[in-house]
Each structure stands twice: as structure tokens, then as C-alpha cells.
């Protein structure tokens, strides 16, 4: 964080410009042939101007006395230099000052700059008038003043157009672009005064519900009322703008910057002192005061509406010295406050994991898409039955220009705290489908999975974005699976449910990622139209040595299958875990034991090499002793695989699962007993009444397997395979499609 010296300070630079112009005027007065060369007053004025230029170069940012001192001394020097001039001889010299003055008026109108211009111009007029013939000076003075007025008019028209483009037509506040520009000026001006600039980011909670209840006209009316209320807050904010749909940004003048903070902020990378308890209390009080004043109730469309809002607070120069940096920090604080159920959030690197250097990383990430620095790796999903690759998850990587290849854990947390995550997700979706289409052109038909963030689930145009990307690449919707974490569904479950249902109607498969890590897993599975659950990698990794984790994995598998869902085990890092997950009946497998994430070209090579292969039986899996005893007692699979890929202890027939393969409420003949799928309940394309699907050689009443090695058959009603690469069958149980793998 760098405040800079005089010429890095915008305000002081605007003062220094006319100072330099005045010095040039005095220099012209003493050049050879000039009428002022022989007068000592001209030389004194030139020396004073030169001294002021040097003062401007060495002045510190907090020397607020420099602008008025420069204006006063220069005005005195100019008046002295011109007062002793011969009558009429220096009249034309008056015009030398006005060209730079005219350009300056067209650029700036800050109070300090106006003070300097007014004092210098007044001195020129007084000096020339004192020693000149009015009949000779009237013409030049009138022409010069007319030029300045014309410059001011141009400046006014330009500012009017700029303000209109940076204004929000609904609230008449600054829009997002105006918030960044005008907010930046407010933050810089407050810091130049040696004070803290406090950014308060206000977000209206559940605004979409107000929109739904009162209509868009009612929602717009409420935003107008809130904008007017925020503009009249006490204390009066230095700036108010609309940062987004239902977000407002306010900048307040704070206390003088503590010397320790000012010193640390001026040294890039230097650690900042921890805020004191008093500082933290003052900021929380400010946040609560803002919330109280916008609480309402407000009369909207004949209804009294009380506003529930949250705020995030960031402070310059402690957190950042720029408006964009403060917005990022305040947004992080706001999101954290909502997560923990608080109304006021203060930004702190310790609570969000954000470090000052990540602010720069965020700025670089914004341009990474246009620069072509992002790329996708693909991690295969393997069928537990056939060993074939039946899908791939698209994983984002960033080829940073100076730091090399970055894993998503380095930069995605930064993006997820801002609207930038939506742009990244759109890019990943489009790139994954583009690659999927390219593979299809090569005869490699491989579905892809793409992760969705919580922010994407509340975008009204998400279904249109997905449908448009599929259509752009000429792909059917069943090639795409969207993965959503439990945590992404917790913040706005009703809105997420509506969005997911619309996506499911389009034919896109939905996967619940990291299952078991949230607090509402059962409710989510019951109410949302998922096709697949992915067991969290933490449970999978610990299942071989932990009885509770092994029990959780077994329970998720049993629950998923009873609900007609495909179950994926992710985070499989070694062969023994791989064997265990196959024995337990997991449908799809993912992890480094199968393959590390690969670039698209290497993934293509892997698909070709595996096209006609079926993975051989996995080695013996090791489970906790008591778990193995429970298996035998409860009819669960033995830890060995038969030649057909099933477990003999589970009654697996060669090539699949035997009749009545799961005891005690498991799979009965033709379906699932006790309220499960009735006899023949699987539609064509699966297994009904023991009929083999697509030559898969499946016995009655079991899970379907993939075609035998080398066979490119297609199960009726399901997706086909090409070159031995299995695809999901598309059969349905309970209205949800299931995978053949």
C-alpha cells in the first residue's frame, strides 16, 4: 500500500500545475528582449516561483499548508513583478498566462486548484492594470477571459455527460462505474486529510422476496426510498453509491489515522497492527447506526415494509488504499457476517483468510479470462462395474504469468467472495462443453461435470446460460452434470430449489457434491431433484481405518441407492481404498488412484488407450475387523471381487448382481422391496424382470452393469458407448435417471 509523494497525490498535482505555469510566465518576463528583464521585481518573482516548485517536489502528503502558501507567495510575486512595469509595455505578456489557465479550467475544478488560479489571475490583472494603459490592456484581458469562460463551458458539458453515464437512473446515485470512480476520489481526499476512510457496504436481505411479493415496481420503489434515506444519514457520508442490485456503498470520514498504521500502510508488505477494541467498537456502532436509520418501516404500494439489512465494513488505509480494494474487503466481511448470522461484519485478514497480496491477485484474475490464462484439467470418473471411464470432472487451473500453474485453492476463494466467480463459472461451463464437443467429433463420447458456486444459483438467467452453451456446441443436455455443494444450497434454499428444478427439466443431470459435510443433507435429498451424490473425500479417505467413517460411507451408499441415486466416491488416493469402495457397492470412482487431473490432450490419449479396456479386479480391500464381521452378519458384500465384478458374498451372479442380491429390504426380484421400486419398476434401458440390457449379461433384480469388454452396445433407451467408453444409460427409478456405471 503506497500513498506516494506530491505528484502521486492527485490533489497536490492539480495545485502544482498552475504553479509551474506561473513560473513559466515569470521566466518569459526576464528573457532577453523582454521588457521586464531590466527590472529586479521580475527576477524576485521568478525566484519565488522556482522556490515554490521545489517546495512542491519535497512536500510530504500531510503538509496541508503547501497549497495556500504557494498561492499566496506566487500572487505576491506576480503582482510585484508587474506593478513596476512601464505603462502598456507588459500588456501582451498577460496573454501568456491564459492558455495554460484555459486548459486547466477544462480539466479540474477542485477547491485548492481554484484558489491558486484565482489568486494568480487576480495578481496578474492588478499588476498589469497598475502599470499599463487601460485602452491597451482591455482587449487582451477580454479575449483571455472569454477563452477561460469557453473552457469552463466545455468542462461543464463534459462533466454533465460523464455524470449521466455514471448515474443509476433508478436511484439517481452513482452506478457501479460511478461508485468506483467517485468513491475513489472520496477515499483519496479523506486519506489526504490524514483521516481514515470508512467504507460501509449495505446489502438488503431477502430483497428477492420483496420483489416477489410487491412486484418489480414495488421493489424499485423500495430501492428509491432506501437510496434517499442513505443520502440523508447522520453522520453525513462523503459519498453514497449503488454498488449492485440491492447493495449500496457509503464512504464516511473516520478518525485520524494512527501513526503506526500510517507508517505500516506506506510500506508494502509491512504487517499492520491489530485494530484496538475501541476502533472495532466505533466501526460496529457506525454499522448499527446505518442499519437503524434504514430499518423503516417504509410505505411501499400501500404496505408497511421493514428492511432487514447487513453491512460489511472496510477501512483505508488499514485494509486497502483504493475504492476497489475496499469494496472487495467489505464484500468479504459482509458475506462472513451473513454466514454467522450477524448484521455487521468487519474485514480482517484473519477471519477470511484474505491477505493483502490477494487483493492484487483478484485484480489479475479479472483479466485472466481475456488474456487466455485459464485452462481446464479433467479428472476421470470410473465405473466400478466395468472399470471403464464414464465421465470427467472439469477442474479449473490458472497459468499465472509470473507464478506458474496455480491450483484452484489458491485463487478460487478470492473469486468466490466477489461477483467474479460468475464470470469464471460461465467460462468453465463453455470451455468444458467445447472440449466435450471436440471429443465427440473424435468419436469419444464423454459426459462432463462442472461445479456451480452459490452465487450462480441465484442468477435468474442460469438456465438460459446453460441451455445457450449446450446449443452453441451442438450438444444434448445429458452430456452435462452440474455439481452443487450442500453449503451453496443453505443460503437461499427456496431460490436454489427453483433454479435446480428448471435445470433438471432441461435434462441436465444434478450432483450433490461433498455429501455429508453440511447440516441439511437429508432434507436436501428429499426435496431437490438430484441424480447423483458424491461422498465427501474426507469420509472416503478415512473409511479404511475409522469405524465411524466406514459406517457413514456404507450409509450414504445404501441411502443413495434406495433413493434411486448414483453414488460417487471421490478422493480415492490408493488401490486399497479403491478396492474397498468397489466392494461396498459404489457406482462411480474418482481420485488419484484412478488418474490425476489431466489436460485435455492427455485426457484424450487416456480415453483412446482405455477405450477397449476393462479394469481388472482390484486387490483385497482392508476394512476394520469389526466392520468385516458386520458384513458377514448383515449380508453385506465380502471384501473380494468375483470374476464378474461383483462380490460373491452378496450373491452376485456372473456379470452383475444376482436375484435378490441385497437381503433384508435390499433389492427384491425386479426392483426394491419395502416401498422401493416394484417388480419390473425399472424402465426399458435398465433391468426389468431379469431382462439383460444391451447384452450386458445382467441377472435379475440387480444393478445394471456396463457392456462386457470391447462391446459397444447400447442399452435400450440409454446412452450408447463408442470404442468401449461407457456412457450413462439414462434409465430412471422414481423419476430420476440413473447411471449404468
From TrEMBL:
Residues 612-653, 683-741 are annotated as: Disordered. Pfam families: EAL, GGDEF. Keywords: Membrane, Transmembrane, Transmembrane helix. The chain crosses the membrane at residues 12-31, 43-59, 66-85, 97-126, 138-158. Residues 358-611 form the EAL domain. Residues 195-349 form the GGDEF domain. It comes from the Bacteria. Gene3D superfamilies: 3.30.70.270, EAL domain. Residues 643-653, 683-697 have a biased composition (Gly residues). The keyword Transmembrane helix applies. This is Diguanylate cyclase/phosphodiesterase. Coiled coil: none annotated. The keyword Transmembrane helix applies.
Amino acid at each position: 500500500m503506497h500513498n506516494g509523494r506530491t505528484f502521486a497525490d492527485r490533489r497536490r498535482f492539480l495545485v502544482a500545475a498552475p504553479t509551474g505555469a506561473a513560473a513559466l510566465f515569470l521566466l518569459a518576463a526576464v528573457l532577453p528582449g523582454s521588457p521586464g528583464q531590466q527590472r529586479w521585481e521580475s527576477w524576485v518573482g521568478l525566484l519565488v516561483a522556482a522556490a515554490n516548485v521545489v517546495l512542491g517536489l519535497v512536500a510530504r502528503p500531510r503538509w496541508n499548508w503547501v497549497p495556500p502558501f504557494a498561492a499566496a507567495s506566487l500572487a505576491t510575486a506576480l503582482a510585484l513583478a508587474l506593478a513596476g512595469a512601464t505603462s502598456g509595455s507588459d500588456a501582451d505578456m498577460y496573454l501568456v498566462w491564459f492558455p495554460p489557465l484555459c486548459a486547466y479550467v477544462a480539466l479540474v475544478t477542485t477547491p485548492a486548484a481554484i484558489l491558486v488560479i484565482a489568486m494568480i489571475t487576480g495578481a496578474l490583472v492588478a499588476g498589469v492594470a497598475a502599470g499599463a494603459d487601460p485602452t491597451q490592456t482591455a482587449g487582451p484581458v477580454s479575449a483571455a477571459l472569454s477563452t477561460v469562460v469557453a473552457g469552463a463551458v466545455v468542462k461543464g458539458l463534459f462533466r454533465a455527460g460523464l455524470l449521466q453515464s455514471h448515474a443509476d437512473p433508478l436511484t439517481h446515485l452513482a452506478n457501479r462505474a460511478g461508485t468506483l470512480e467517485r468513491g475513489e476520489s472520496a477515499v483519496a481526499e479523506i486519506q489526504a486529510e490524514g483521516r481514515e476512510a470508512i467504507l460501509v457496504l449495505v446489502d438488503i436481505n431477502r430483497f428477492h422476496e420483496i420483489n416477489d411479493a410487491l412486484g418489480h415496481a414495488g421493489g424499485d420503489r423500495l430501492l428509491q426510498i432506501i437510496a434517499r434515506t442513505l443520502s440523508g444519514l447522520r453522520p453525513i457520508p462523503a459519498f453514497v453509491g449503488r454498488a449492485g442490485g440491492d447493495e449500496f456503498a457509503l464512504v464516511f470520514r473516520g478518525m485520524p489515522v494512527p501513526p503506526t498504521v500510517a507508517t505500516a500502510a506506506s510500506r508494502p508488505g509491512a504487517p499492520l497492527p491489530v485494530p484496538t477494541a475501541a476502533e472495532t467498537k466505533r466501526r460496529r456502532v457506525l454499522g448499527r447506526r446505518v442499519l437503524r436509520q434504514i430499518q423503516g418501516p417504509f410505505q411501499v404500494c400501500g404496505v408497511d415494509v421493514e428492511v432487514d439489512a447487513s453491512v460489511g465494513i472496510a477501512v483505508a488505509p488499514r485494509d486497502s488504499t483504493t475504492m476497489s480494494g475496499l469494496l472487495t474487503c467489505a464484500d468479504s466481511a459482509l458475506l462472513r457476517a451473513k454466514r454467522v448470522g450477524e448484521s455487521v461484519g468487519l474485514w480482517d485478514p484473519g477471519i477470511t483468510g484474505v491477505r493483502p497480496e490477494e487483493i492484487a491477485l483478484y485484480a489479475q484474475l479479472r483479466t485472466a479470462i481475456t488474456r487466455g490464462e485459464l485452462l481446464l484439467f479433467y479428472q476421470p470418473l470410473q465405473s466400478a462395474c466395468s472399470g471403464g471411464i464414464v465421465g470427467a470432472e472439469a477442474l479449473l487451473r490458472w497459468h499465472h504469468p509470473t507464478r506458474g500453474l496455480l491450483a484452484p485453492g489458491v485463487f478460487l476463494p478470492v473469486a468466490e467472495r466477489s461477483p467474479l466467480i460468475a464470470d469464471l463459472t460461465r467460462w468453465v461451463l463453455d470451455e468444458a462443453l467445447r472440449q466435450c464437443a471436440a471429443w465427440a467429433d473424435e468419436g469419444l463420447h464423454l459426459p462432463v461435470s462442472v461445479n456451480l458456486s452459490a452465487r450462480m444459483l441465484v442468477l435468474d438467467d442460469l438456465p438460459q446460460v446453460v441451455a445457450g452453451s449446450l446449443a452453441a456446441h451442438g450438444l444434448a443436455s445429458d452430456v452435462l452434470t452440474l455439481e452443487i455443494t450442500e453449503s451453496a444450497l443453505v443460503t437461499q434454499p427456496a431460490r436454489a430449489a427453483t433454479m435446480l428444478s428448471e435445470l433438471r427439466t432441461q435434462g441436465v443431470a444434478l450432483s450433490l457434491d461433498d455429501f455429508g459435510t453440511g447440516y441439511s443433507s437429508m432434507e436436501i435429498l428429499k426435496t431437490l431433484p438430484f441424480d447423483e451424490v458424491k461422498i465427501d473425500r474426507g469420509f472416503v479417505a478415512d473409511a479404511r481405518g475409522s469405524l465411524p467413517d466406514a459406517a457413514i460411507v456404507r450409509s450414504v451408499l445404501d441411502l443413495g441407492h434406495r433413493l434411486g441415486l448414483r453414488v460417487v466416491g471421490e478422493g480415492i488416493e490408493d488401490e486399497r481404498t479403491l478396492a474397498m469402495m468397489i466392494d461396498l457397492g459404489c457406482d462411480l470412482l474418482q481420485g488419484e488412484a484412478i488418474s490425476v487431473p489431466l489436460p485435455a490432450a492427455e485426457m484424450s490419449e487416456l480415453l483412446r488407450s482405455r477405450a477397449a479396456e476393462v479394469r481388472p479386479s482390484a486387490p483385497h480391500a482392508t476394512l476394520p475387523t469389526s466392520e468385516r464381521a458386520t458384513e458377514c452378519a448383515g449380508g453385506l458384500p465380502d471384501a473380494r471381487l468375483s470374476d464378474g465384478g461383483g462380490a460373491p458374498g452378496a450373491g452376485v451372479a456372473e456379470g452383475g448382481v444376482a436375484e435378490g442380491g441385497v437381503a433384508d429390504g435390499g433389492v427384491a426380484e425386479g426392483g426394491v422391496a419395502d416401498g422401493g421400486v416394484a417388480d419390473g419398476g425399472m424402465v426399458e434401458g435398465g433391468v426389468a424382470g431379469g431382462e439383460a440390457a444391451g447384452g450386458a449379461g445382467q441377472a435379475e433384480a440387480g444393478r445394471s452393469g456396463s457392456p462386457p469388454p470391447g462391446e459397444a452396445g447400447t442399452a435400450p433407451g440409454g446412452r450408447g458407448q463408442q470404442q468401449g467408453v461407457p456412457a450413462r444409460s439414462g434409465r430412471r427409478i422414481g423419476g430420476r435417471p440413473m447411471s449404468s456405471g
